[in-house]
Amino acid sequence: MERLAIHGGTPVRETPIYYGHQCIDDSDIDAVVGVLRSDYLTCGPAVAELEQKLCKVTGARYAAAVSNGTAALHAACYAAGIKDGDEVITTPLTFAASANCILYMGATPVFADVNPDTYNIDPASIEEHISEKTKAIVAVDFTGQAAELDRIRSICKKHHLILIEDGAHSIGTVYKDIPVGNFADLTAFSFHPVKTVTGGEGGAILTNDESLYQRLSIFRTHGITRNTKFMDLGMEYAQGHDGREEWYYQQIALGYNYRITDIQAALITSQLKKLEKFKLRRQEIASKYNEAFSNFPGIVLQKEIPESDTTRHIYLIQLNLDELTAGRREIFDALKAENVYCNVHYIPVYRFPYYQKLGYKKGLCPCAEKLYERLITIPLYPAMTDGDVDSVITAVKKVVGNYLK
Ligand SMILES: *Cc1c(COP(=O)(O)O)cnc(C)c1O
Questions:
Q1: How confident is the model over 333-350, as pLDDT tens digits?
Q2: How far apart are CA 145 and CA 137, in angstroms?
Q3: Cβ-contact 310, 302 below 8 angstroms
Q4: Atom in ligand 1 nearest the alpha carbon of residue 191
Q5: 203 in ligand 1 pocket by Cβ < 6 Å?
Q6: To test the ligand 1 pocket, which listed residue (190, 195, 345) has its Cβ within 8 A of the most ligand atoms?
Q7: Is there a cis peptide before residue 346, judged by omega within 30 degrees of 0?
Q8: Probe ligand 1: pick from 66, 68, 70, max atoms within 8 Å of CB?
Q9: What percent of the chain has pLDDT over 90?
Q10: pTM exceeds 0.90 for this model
Q11: What pLDDT, in 10s, does the model give residues 295-323?
Q12: Which ligand 1 atom is the nearest neighbour of the CA of 94?
């Protein structure tokens, strides 16, 4: 057997490859430079253009662009009216922001377990966790594959809950012919550089509901509005004004500065033009991985559901530890020595010290905890060459093969 690089052998790759990387071309650069040469760096036309583009891509009626995906989730929770004393059900196998946004509102995150095959939140576990206090569900499309949205939506209908979709992984994914962004009551996107479409930082919330949209619009800019339509909602005008002066604005709620700049917005709009191309290349790479690993001992693949036409954000291999002589940590380190830099998605949120202090206990979601011990995220991004993909496959087979019982 070939000697592993971690044991002094020759690495499969000469240079490192990372699990994700942005994909920027000259048209993206031109879009940003165009804004820098224009009159508006923020609150200008590029933001409106991005919002129109997002509506076009998703088919949703309203889009509110914000400064990042976490702000998008916070705004969605605000618009949904989540408050102190409410419970909101979400998955532990996600980035902390999916649950933190619930805490921001003074509400309690309740963690439902995941499906052991798809890794997405399990609708049956959601039902088990519904109480009198449940107000909403934050469903995450983990790895880009849509959660079981139909079942989750019927649970929401039955119990009068609001469905918030964390689509940070899943822009471009289509569930039963409906694009993500046009399914849930509110969908949050992130445009962080590891995501499929980036603005450096950036986020957006999509909705079809006008009153939710109004709440999003106010929340992202201090709770302040110049819109006389909002001002007329029974609000009293500040002393000495009739609200009709051209310079007048009104603060009608306690919002934040979650605005996005025109620089970021232009970059995201430019990136969105390539979404289909990114999606296809991501799917192509995922298929190559599926083919390479589907019958490889020691590796279990994530189950793909036919309802989701997935923009694959990250590709995970699950280690079958029963067949291996090493744990995830050793295999992760051995891959790194081969110059394949992986990642792990995710430490179950409630296992963080902050959540432990809030009283969440180990063992709460056994499937998520078991998966956490076994998952490794291997490189996947559109700019990878076929040679890169082959080298990752070679390295994974070399390392996992080496540790087979
Ligand atoms: C990236 C991410 C977020 C947060 O987005 P930011 O733009 O980094 O704030 C939220 N949820 C999930 C699942 C994510 O992957």
A1: 999 999 999 999 999 999
A2: 17
A3: no
A4: 7
A5: yes
A6: 190
A7: yes
A8: 70
A9: 92
A10: yes
A11: 999 999 999 999 999 999 999 999 999 99
A12: 13
